Amino acid sequence: MYKIAVVTMGVRLNDEKGYTRFRYICEFLTDAGYQVDLITTTFQHWEKAQRDLDKIRKDHYKFGIKFIYEPGYKKNIDLRRVRSHAAAAKNLRAFLEKEGGYDLIYAEIPPNDVALAAAEFAKKKGIPFVADVNDLWPEAMRMVLDIPVVSDILFYPLKRDAEKVYRLVSGVIGTSDEYRDRPFQAQDRPIPRETVYVGNELKEFDEGAEKNRDEVRKSEGEFWVSYAGTIGTSYDIRTMVLAAEELLKRGRTEIKFKILGGGPMKDELEELALSRNISSVEFVGYAPYDKMAAYLKASDILVNSFVRKAPQSIVTKIGDYLAAGKPMINTCMSPEFRAKVEHDGFGINIEPEDVNVLADAVERLYRDKNICLEMGKRARQIAEEQFDRPKSYRKIVSLIETLLKK
To answer: Helix, strand, or coil here: 60?
Structure first.
């Protein structure tokens, strides 16, 4: 039986906050007949705290879990995070040297230095290394700090490590076509590559939405415009708040904005809504996955809200938005995703950071129930065809099988 290591710094275990992609990959590979170890850190990224390892170990998992020590950090972009990842990379190297014995390593990138530790170990042992590219560093960092020359110097180590990882890959999984193809910008090797959207399990989404349906109360005649995700620099929640104000000025008191999630800009934007008395905006806060599903299903429009310079492509929340079967307003400037919105017909693209453009788009969809219904049907269809993990993640297993047979 082949033994596979799945390396990730960001995975939800137990009842933690966060994403389940890598836990699902481990379960999927185990079900496919592989012996799998999930290698992650003692630090929980979304909780910003050390994990309760004893509590996690009491749970039953189909796969093994190995923890490496990571000191942790308080902010997403901060020198302590750089040091924390460096410590995790060092500890991963030591762990692999001591307890290796794997036939293939599958690791997420970023963090770039952690992925590099895994890639260099795989090269040393002569085993395949698969990179799961689900963000681009340092490109994403320039959203927060983009100073000519200074940023180039600061971010050089991230760029250097990324290019080293990309040169060592045996196969690539990308969460979008753009991410899938990024490792080949500076090289053109004939190695297997696939796009596998982060996606979700539609069965879990639907069951969660149904279970929480009565808890999510929507008054008669209300029309909900919702966002779910991080409230941070890349995400244009400010324009949503001000568009809600604009629609109130137009007399659209029945249009309500629901903002789900947390992040570094939540308090500031909540204060903006309060100070301007924008009564149609509610900051719901962090909602467990099943409750979030119920909110998305109860909504009438979902907004994929990004600032113009955001480097993101097809992000985690898209699978859940599509599963809800609602029309989408997209402000993300990724050419790949804008083309998908248009081609697949589940929403409309608009210019980001423009209050009146967003208010007009909401009002247009509010008035046209038929187009909302049609876009919603298309959204659900695309979710079923392309984002449902039990189907879409088969591509990961096929790519791994190809590499192990070589």
So the answer is: coil
